[in-house]
Design brief:
Elements (H helix, E strand, L loop, with lengths): L3 E6 L5 H10 L3 E6 L4 H13 L5 E6 L6 H17 L3 E5 L5 H14 L3 E5 L4 E4 L7 H4 L15 H7 L4 E3 L8 H9 L1 H12 L14 H8 L7 H9 L4 E3 L2 E3 L5 H7 L7 H33 L3 E5 L2 E3 L7 E2 L2 E5 L2 E10 L6 H15 L3 E9 L3 H13 L4 E4 L12
Parallel strand pairs: 1-2, 1-4, 2-3, 4-5, 14-15, 15-16
Antiparallel strand pairs: 5-6, 7-11, 8-9, 10-13, 11-12, 13-14
């Protein structure tokens, strides 16, 4: 069989293009774009590379609002050129505007080239019936997304949305016993939080040191942790035991001493304090992320779940760490996890959550705000109302995790 040249219409949403590349594994990609969607074409190529594919690439620019005739002519020329170059042209008429789709299908039918529509909701391809050669014959008669499910992961979807610089997350399972203990012993969890962020805690009201000297002082400040939590945290190297007391891990001490005289706090400083910040964050709420991660994994609803995964749009740009990101079918599943409590300001979190999820997965994402200690009465009602206004963000609490169906659509 001839190698495939995949002709695609590009719109703001790229999922219908990404799954087509993963399924048909074309040797050559021909993307028809408008000025508004031109950059999206390159994102799809980057996503293909993340999946281990390296097709040659051609971008055909159309006008801002292409008509049926303009699109039809462009697709017809692309199909003819692909034939002449020894390819089998296959037309994906899913993207773009409705007029563009009509034009692309019209050209495929006139040229008797195979064509298809991507049904992302039902996770399958639909043959356009424009050629005696069926789409099924090109996909081993399996029109579902199942054959390339593993390639449809967080990395490829994020890359298709312009996030190419990705650092995969931490291994969460070693932290689960401590996280589960904190969940099951709320009095000890509260005492741990007070020991760090309480008014008499080592980082009172959540204020961390801002320079090496401050962190060195913190290294010498004992933390009043409940005994069992201290032991489990020490096993994970979140804290260290010295003379019967709990302290932050000490590995960064020498580096921080060296940096005391450095007027510019650069990468070496932030690398030195990173494990200290992780310990503080985990013991004051980060553990809840691991509890949610475990429940989401056990639900069987998601795959490629990542804890503490980081993204940025290009190398050298500061990466932003996310709580939990995974894939549900063809959608990004985004989880923002908050400990909550009486003073938590959760309404503002919803808008940020919505924006962050869409930046990774586009408009069609599943979004969860997971709150261990949710607000009560009127504040809870306001939170739920705003979550629903933002296209149905699901709020998940510690009680909800008793029933894993909470993650179903």
């Amino acid at each position: 069989m001839k190698p495939i040249a995949l002709v695609q219409l590009i719109s703001e949403q790229t999922m219908q293009n990404l799954v087509s590349v993963l399924a048909f594994r074309p040797r050559h990609l021909i993307h028809l774009t408008t000025p508004k969607t031109a950059s999206r074409a390159a994102h799809i190529v980057a996503a293909a590379e993340q999946a281990g594919l390296s097709p040659s690439f051609e971008n055909i620019r159309l006008s801002q609002t292409p008509s049926i005739a303009e699109t039809s002519r462009a697709v017809h020329r692309a199909v003819s050129a692909a034939h002449e170059a020894g390819f089998l042209p296959v037309v994906n008429f899913t993207g773009g505007t409705k007029l563009m789709s009509i034009g692309a299908y019209e050209a495929a039918k006139a040229a008797q080239s195979p064509s298809f529509y991507v049904d992302t909701e039902h996770q399958c391809f639909i043959d356009g019936g424009s050629s005696p050669q069926t789409i099924g014959s090109l996909l081993e008669n399996d029109l579902s997304f199942t054959p390339f499910r593993d390639a449809l992961n967080v990395r490829t979807i994020a890359a298709a949305n312009g996030l190419e610089n990705i650092s995969l997350g931490r291994d969460w399972e070693p932290y689960l016993p401590l996280a589960a203990f904190l969940l099951d012993h709320p009095a000890d969890e509260q005492a741990t939080w007070e020991a760090i962020h309480g008014t008499k805690g080592i980082c009172a009201n959540g204020r961390e040191p801002r320079d090496p000297a401050g962190w060195i002082t913190l290294l010498d400040t004992p933390i009043s942790l409940p005994t069992e939590i201290g032991k489990m945290a020490a096993d994970l190297q979140l804290v260290a035991c010295r003379e019967g007391c709990w302290y932050l891990p000490q590995e960064s001490r020498e580096t921080l001493h060296e940096l005391k005289s450095d007027s510019k706090l650069g990468e070496r400083y932030f690398k030195a304090i990173a494990p200290l910040q992780f310990s503080l964050a985990f013991l004051t709420g980060g553990w809840w992320e691991v509890v949610v991660m475990d429940a989401a994994q056990r639900s069987g609803q998601f795959h490629d779940l990542q804890w503490s995964i980081s993204f940025s749009r290009q190398p050298g740009e500061a990466q932003r760490e996310e709580d939990i990101v995974g894939v549900d079918g063809v959608q990004i599943a985004y989880f923002s996890c908050k400990r909550g409590g009486a003073k938590a300001r959760l309404l503002s979190v919803l808008d940020e959550l919505d924006n962050r999820a869409r930046s990774i997965g586009g408009s069609f994402t599943r979004r969860f705000l997971c709150v261990c200690y949710p607000p009560k009465k009127e504040l809870r009602q306001n939170l739920e109302k705003r979550a629903e206004e933002l296209s149905g963000i699901r709020i998940v609490t510690r009680d909800d995790l008793k029933n894993l169906d909470v993650f179903k659509k």
